[in-house]
Each structure stands twice: as C-alpha cells, then as structure tokens.
C-alpha cells in the first residue's frame, strides 16, 4: 500500500495498493499529462532518489521552502512567522524528517492555507506532521483526492486565519482560488502571497507587473470581466510586496498599483481598447 504521487502535478492520492488509473488534476485543461503518459512516484521513492527541501529566509519573518531538484511544478511554500503562530502559505509535495525538524525549530505550523488544487500536493502529510488544519476554499474541495479530518474547507470570501492574516477568495484560475493578505506589525508594510491566482511575471521594470490565467501551461486566458472583477476585489486591500508562486518571483513594492495597472492592460488588450503592433 502507498499514497501514490502524480509526477506531473505532485498531487498525492489516498493509500492504495496500485496507483490510480489517471490523475484528474492533470486531465483537466488547466494542467496536462506529459508526453510519456501518466507517471507515478511515492515519497519513499523521492527520498531514495535524493530529493531534498531547501528552507531559506525569504524576507523579514518569511521562510521559503522548495524542493531540489525541482519537482514537478516547482512552486515554493512560504512560512509566515508570527507571534500568534506560523502560517504556511501553499504547499509542496516532498516532505522528510529534516524538513519537519527545520520548520519545528522555526516554531512549527499553526495553519496551512493553500491557494488552489495544483498546490494541494501532499497537504495531508504536512497536516499530520504538524497537527494543524489545512484551509482551502470549499468551491475547490471536490478536487481533494486524499480526504483527511485536517482539511477544513471554508465558504467565506474573506477568512481570518490568524490576527492580521486573511485568506481572500478571488477566483479566476480556479473558482476557489485564494490569495493571502498579511498585515503583521512586525513584518512592516502589508503584503500579499498569491501563488498563481495572481502570477508575478518576469517584467518588473520600471514598475511591478502581474498576470492572470485560466491555464498557465496551456496559455488559456481568463475572460476580461473576470480579471476586472479580481482587480476591483484586490483594489479594496492595501498591500505593498507581492510574493508569487516561484523562487525570486516578487513585486518588490507598489503591489496594489501593479495589480490594477496589469489588470487594466489585460482587459484592454482582450477587449481591443488597447492596440498593440503585431508586426
Ligand atoms: Zn497529476
Ligand atoms: Zn495552478
């Protein structure tokens, strides 16, 4: 018996003697099955293959955790350290005792909040290791493939996780896609963690830029009105930095303006009010 892991999206399934026949997360058009077809692994096999997690300071009070070599989407989890308890934003598949020890030395995890199903990964392993809840939006809970008492779906569009840390359901990429708004005095200006609900893009000059997609690997955009709605929802919040899904992916300052400006560009190009030269 094993909890099989899809090697394309990193989702861990409930215990079974044989791997599932398919991965519904990858069959969805927001993901993909690779050219070699469906491939499965396990945490034990990953340990034997030499995977490890890098746990490093990301900024004041923030710790990034990601797997090396990259596996499979390559996102980072971010531990937001707070006197009220630490919150883990998003999750990664690989977990071993060295990672658990390092995070416990940082004060452990009071709650895990996950932006969307692509990062559900092995959330139940993490929840069991740290004996903490996993907060997801109930609009996406039908994507859970390893049920657990630790998973706590919520209905609200604004869910207070701990004092100063609020999960906002802004939708878009998935109906229940979340961002995490953090306003913690000891960490300076308010900031936003976005996963790929709001994607921090490579072009950050001279100002910050982000984007929004229904599918990132398959480059399927969101409708203009959906992006405008996300813009208006986020514009009601004050935030400076934006931490995206991947290492080094930050809007360094002016995050709220970056969201508004980027959404306006996106909507303008889709509806034709902004003209681009295509030659
Ligand atoms: Zn998959
Ligand atoms: Zn995604």
TrEMBL record:
Q: Which domain of life is it from?
A: Eukaryota
Gene3D superfamilies in the record:
Ribonuclease Z/Hydroxyacylglutathione hydrolase-like
Q: Where is the Metallo-beta-lactamase domain?
A: 74-246
Tell me the PANTHER family matching this sequence. METALLO-BETA-LACTAMASE FAMILY PROTEIN (AFU_ORTHOLOGUE AFUA_5G12770) (PTHR36839)
What is the name attached to this protein's record? Answer: Metallo-beta-lactamase domain-containing protein
Species of provenance: Apatococcus fuscideae
């Amino acid at each position: 018996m094993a909890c099989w892991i899809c090697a394309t999206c990193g989702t861990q399934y409930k215990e079974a003697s044989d791997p599932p026949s398919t991965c519904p997360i990858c069959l969805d058009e927001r993901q993909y099955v690779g050219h070699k077809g469906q491939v499965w692994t396990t945490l034990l096999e990953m340990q034997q293959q030499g995977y490890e997690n890098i746990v490093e300071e990301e900024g004041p009070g923030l710790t990034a955790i990601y797997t090396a070599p990259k596996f499979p989407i390559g996102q980072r989890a971010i531990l937001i350290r707070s006197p009220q308890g630490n919150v883990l934003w998003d999750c990664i598949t690989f977990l071993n005792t060295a990672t658990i020890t390092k995070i416990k030395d940082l004060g452990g995890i009071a709650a895990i909040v996950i932006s969307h199903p692509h990062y559900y990964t092995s959330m139940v392993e993490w929840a069991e290791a740290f004996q903490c809840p996993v907060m997801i939006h109930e609009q996406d809970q039908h994507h859970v493939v390893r049920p657990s008492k630790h998973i706590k779906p919520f209905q609200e569009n604004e869910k207070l996780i701990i004092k100063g840390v609020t999960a906002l359901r802004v939708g878009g990429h998935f109906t229940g896609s979340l961002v995490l708004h953090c306003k913690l005095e000891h960490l300076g200006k308010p900031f936003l963690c976005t996963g790929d609900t709001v994607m921090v893009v490579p072009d950050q000059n001279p100002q910050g830029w982000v984007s929004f997609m229904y599918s990132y690997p398959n480059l399927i955009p969101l409708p203009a009105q959906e992006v405008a709605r996300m813009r208006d929802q986020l514009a009601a919040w004050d935030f400076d930095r934006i931490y995206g899904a991947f290492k080094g992916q930050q809007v360094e300052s002016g995050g709220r303006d970056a969201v508004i400006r980027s959404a306006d560009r996106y909507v303008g190009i889709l509806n034709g009010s902004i003209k681009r030269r295509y030659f």
